[in-house]
């Protein structure tokens, strides 16, 4: 496909998203109906669509409308691409720009806050309260594609060995300061799943800040009984396993999310017990609670636009319930680690304050925020000790 044809295909996908369809479903349906497109074409169109979703407001403002065509015009202008190369009027490309479309070109600096920073206006006070002077810098960063990180599995390899094995498959990496075992992929991230290092369990895909959150609590996991209470697919459970606990269990309110954990644990060389209804007491209960995902908007840009105030309120209520239940599973002298990938204080510090307000005998051991400006996703963690 020509570059202009890729833009046209992306514009058609955006039109379906504007109509209410989910991003992944749109891309999957397009790929199935476009067998002529090669893997590079599919990857390029995927990148264009996700770039547009991250910059939903600004591209519409620059391009002069909400359609896929307008947003592709906004994308082209924002990236410094000539619209003449995109709107060629050729086969499978979009028609050339009309006079009114040329006149619609605006400078993003004159746009309202929503368009300049690609965020819903109701989130502005929440973000400014949590991020202060860093708000604009964080939101600008959220308009870019997220970096891809790997976690080196300390149970099987050191960082140097993992890097060498990845390089054999053409995957170039460098170490990242956020975590002792984090590698930033700088070349060929799409080769990871087929690489020997990944197949043999030496590395896992995991954001660097996500790794750092586990490291904050990792010292408490060593030689203790550990429960990952909101395990999902098991990424943090695998990272906890590398801390060498005495025992490690995983639980999630939806057991289907944990279906891959046994195979992932086998590949990683560790043992994780999957529990549908945890009982007993643990030295560390780790809760990566369901949240808005605002710290990961670079990876999941659709979530930036689907989040509502009512949904945020529902999430904070869920977080309170999780903290209450998880606290019952912490043995005396043990710790509860509460984490989110949210930027909002409502989901972070406020939840911890509420929890401690009802349990004055508990103490806070540590509290840490990781901002996207540090390289990874936005994360929060607080470690709370039971007396």
Explain this structure to me?
- It is a single chain.
- This protein has 387 residues and is α/β, with parallel strands linked by helices.
- The chain folds into 3 domains: 3-118, no CATH class; 149-205, Sun protein, domain 3 (Alpha-Beta Plaits, 2-Layer Sandwich); 216-385, Vaccinia Virus protein VP39 (Rossmann fold).
- Helix content is 44%, strand content 16%.
- It contains 18 helices and 11 strands.
- The chain has helices at residues 3-18, 23-33, 39-54, 56-63, 68-78, 83-86, 99-103, 113-117, 124-131, 135-141, 159-168, 196-199, 208-221, 235-241, 261-268, 301-306, 309-327, 349-358, and strands spanning 149-152, 172-175, 182-187, 203-205, 225-228, 247-251, 273-275, 282-288, 330-340, 363-370, 379-385.
- The strands form 2 sheets. A 7-stranded mixed β-sheet has the order 7-6-5-8-9-11-10, sandwiched between helices. A 4-stranded antiparallel β-sheet has the order 2-3-1-4.
- Strand 2 (172-175) and strand 3 (182-187) form a beta hairpin.
- Helix 1 (3-18) crosses helix 2, helix 1 (3-18) crosses helix 3 and helix 1 (3-18) crosses helix 5.
- The chain is globular and about 70 Å long.
- The model has no long low-confidence stretch (mean pLDDT 94).
Task: Enumerate how many helices there are, as a single number.
Answer: 18
Quickly give the CATH architecture of the largest domain.
3-Layer(aba) Sandwich
End-to-end separation in angstroms reads: 64 Å
Oligomer: single chain
Give the helix/strand class. alpha/beta
Evaluate the radius of gyration.
23 Å
Number of strands: 11
| Low-pLDDT residue spans | none
CATH topology of the largest domain: Rossmann fold
Which sequence of strands runs across the widest sheet? 7-6-5-8-9-11-10
CATH class value of the largest domain: Alpha Beta
* Name given to the CATH homologous superfamily of the largest domain: Vaccinia Virus protein VP39
Query: What is the H/E string?
Result: HHHHHHHHHHEHEEHEHEHEHEEHHEHEE
The total domain count is 3
The major sheet is characterized as: 7 strands, mixed
Mean pLDDT: 94
Overall form: globular
Note the beta-strand portion: 15-25%
In helices, the fraction of residues equals: 40-55%
